[in-house]
Amino acid sequence: MPIKSYLAHPHQGKKDELILAISALKHCEVVPAQNRDIIVIVTETDTREEEDNLKLKLEAISSLKLLAMVSGFNTPQKN
Amino acid sequence: MFTSMTNRRDFIKKMARLSAITAAVSMFPGILFAEEQERGLPKGGNLDWKKAPCRFCGVGCGVLVGVENGKAVAVKGDPKSEVNKGLCCVKGYHSVMAMYGNDRLTKPLVKKNGTYVETSMDEALDLIASKMKETIQDHGKDAVSIYGSGQWTIPDGYVASKLFKGCIGTNNVEANARLCMASAVTGFLTSFGLDEPMGCYEDIDYADVFVLWGNNMAEMHPVLFSRLLDQRLKRGVKIIDFATRTTRTSMAADKSILFLPQTDLAVANAICYEIIKNGWVNTSFVEKHCNFTKGSTNIGYGLEDKFAFKDKPEKISFEDYKVFLEDYSPEKVEKISGVSAKDIKYMAAYYGDPNKKVMSLWCMGMNQHTRGTWINNLVYNIHLLTGKISEPGNSPFSLTGQPSACGTVREVGTLTHKLPHGVVMNKEHREFAAKIWDVPVENIPSKPTYHTVEMFRALDRGDIRFMWIQVTNPMVTMPKLKRYRDGAKKEGRFIVVSDIYPTPTTDIADVILPSAMWVEREGMYGNSERRTQYFEQMVEPPGEAMSDTWQIVEVAKRLGYEKQFYYKEETHIEEIYTEYRRHHDNKKHNMAPLEVLKENSGMQWPYVDGKPTKWRFNSKYDPACSNGEDFHFYGKPDGKAIIWQRPYEPAAEEPDSEYPYWLNTGRVVEHWHTGSMTRRIPVLHKAMPKAYVELNPGDAKRLQIQTGDSVKLTTRRGEIILPASVNQRGVPAPMQVFVPFFDENMLINDITLDSFCPISKEPDYKKCAVNIEKV
Ligand code: SF4
């Protein structure tokens, strides 16, 4: 049950586009900064495989310039 | 923000989110996550938002505290605050959580046969008063003492000073700001005759260049640093980080210049040399407004008990000063400091350019320095020679670390030599204080007793027998800690500690009093820019916890000083503040009335004719200027500021073959000082759970040390084992290591040195010699 958080940096002028694109993905929560071009992403997936797939999808988003992982947790089953 | 944790998975998710936000906040100070703030608010609640200054650092951000059902549940930046304009840092956002740690002290505890026994507040206060009486009777007035803090509210510090200096008649009043701000104070006093910055944060909006002197502002003053970064975006200002270690500030700066520890003295002199050599002196300013003076040299380091020093100032001419500076050409200083002559000239050129406004900012790097007063003087020299002072954007500015280091310790004067107005050595000042305090003037002794280090030495020696410690944690922060911990535990000492959580300092207490924290009581703080900010009581303190002010008032009454401590419980803060204002009733320091503080996000003093004074000593802005000139440094009898001749002298203990590295200590963004509050905030604790030793990557490679490896640090005081940190957050220069001091389980101060500046008596936590080995 991996839970991870990332800082995502959009390409210039593409912050809204990036927020939309990430919001459309399953298992992803988006917390955009109000006054900077930075987006916090929290992912919550059931398996490592799902997690890897999700990361690939994130990295494929064209408005994303850089994705930096901040923390990763492996949790017990959902309760 | 703060929400209840419904289950472990939600908790972890929140942790993940907050870790990312914490990282973002420290990388991009001032970043706001509005949605996250909203998410933290209890749903469907009836939140009542009330304004307060932040509990933590001396920036003094205005915050809004959300209160629901008698509990403080949320914090956001106050958009109306001129200080932070709605921003907040990671500590500020989580500040209310510091009130609700599981192990909050709620009952007084008295040590009986080695164990702590709960007692009532009345009994504990009776015991404290009777112990004080007994100690005074057996050992004299100077055997009792109080050690407070820059986290004391203004009323806390005021009643402490009134009780000890005015009523009991001892100058044994000190505060932990001695450990962080004293050199800034003596710097101001020696150069200008009056304490505290002439400028204000608004200088940031006008300056073109910012020189940070040994100041990791990105981590220590994040909200102000974000104001610098904003100006860079808007106006392309330049930020120069001049430091001994590469930090997040260096990474964000336009230029990072590293110097060898202690050699800032030489570099500052070299900048003055360049300014003079290139004809950048503002001659008319210097002629009208400055004197040249030299002081004693080879002034020692305070390492021995009862160390005494008195400077012997001697007037010199500008010509004499120029001759002195011949030893400080950039080329000569390059050899001492490791800073290239080119970089010295680069900095000098900005200071010397008449079309550039320059703000110098500093904090612990310059203050915790065995020549702390000197380096403060030297930076003022640069601003005085160029006339870049006391006007918007031209500003030498010392920052503070605690919310009321200025407001309480410096302005109320809770230091052994100080009175709210003036100093104990001055008869008129004593008379003035005695009149307001309603005590015979003979009560106030004319000689200062012990500064902080010497006070703890006196406790060790047995000259002091009773010490009351409030809102501070000296058993983590004192340098060469072991001596002072052992001393405090000796037979025949009686220690009272008022705090909100158990700490290594409550461990040495005979009585522990639970204190009301921040908005659990009413009070005021004064921040770095002379801004006094009021906060009301918003929630009830837990159990029997009581404000530090009222604890002192209760003990004072028990000691028989009912007449002087006439305050009523419901109105005492207002009564005390109104009385305190009388000490500063003049154009140079007038404090705003309480109603004004309540209506505004604080107010700067001098508050004259209904207006704050933003730039002191400049007749355009400061009504106290009276010499008919553009500038008036009225703190000095002849109205002139002093340019000091101060040489470079080495540190008290420098690396040698046995201890070949420099040890530097300091803070991290997640924790506030000793961590007694922030380590109880889960997200901050998890983000930075324990101390470490930062090594230079080259040194680490040579010693085959990697991040996480255990490293033994040995100094002449002892040894400690810490996990290594290589190329992580900060990168020390070669042959230097850095250790943060927030972790009470890894007390780095056990091995630091208690050398101090002979003028300010502030210890140097930034420099001693250490050996490192992989274990
Ligand atoms: S910068 Fe200082 S005053 Fe401002 S929110 Fe952070 S800790 Fe509080």
Helix content of chain A: 25-40%
Structural class by helix and strand composition of chain A: alpha+beta
User: How many β-strands of chain B, per DSSP?
Assistant: 31
Strand content of chain A: 35-45%
By CATH, the superfamily of chain A comes out as Lrp/AsnC effector binding domain/regulation of amino acid metabolism (RAM) domain
Secondary-structure-based class of chain B equals alpha/beta
What does this structure look like?
The complex is a heterodimer of chains A (79) and B (775). Chain A has 79 residues and is an alpha+beta fold. Chain A has a single domain, classed as Lrp/AsnC effector binding domain/regulation of amino acid metabolism (RAM) domain (Alpha-Beta Plaits), CATH 3.30.70.920. Chain A is built from 2 helices and 4 strands, in the order βαββαβ. Chain A has helices at residues 15-23, 48-60; strands spanning 2-10, 28-32, 39-44, 64-74. Chain A has a 4-stranded antiparallel β-sheet with strand order 2-3-1-4, covered by helices on one side. In chain A, a hairpin with a 6-residue loop joins strand 2 and strand 3. The N and C termini of chain A lie close together (11 Å). The model of chain A is unreliable at 75-79 (pLDDT under 50). By secondary structure, chain B is α/β, with parallel strands linked by helices. The longest helix of chain B is centred in the N-terminal third of the chain and has 20 residues, at 8-27. The complex binds iron/sulfur cluster (SF4). Iron/sulfur cluster binds at residues 54, 56-57, 59-61, 84, 88-89, 91-92, 221-223 of chain B.
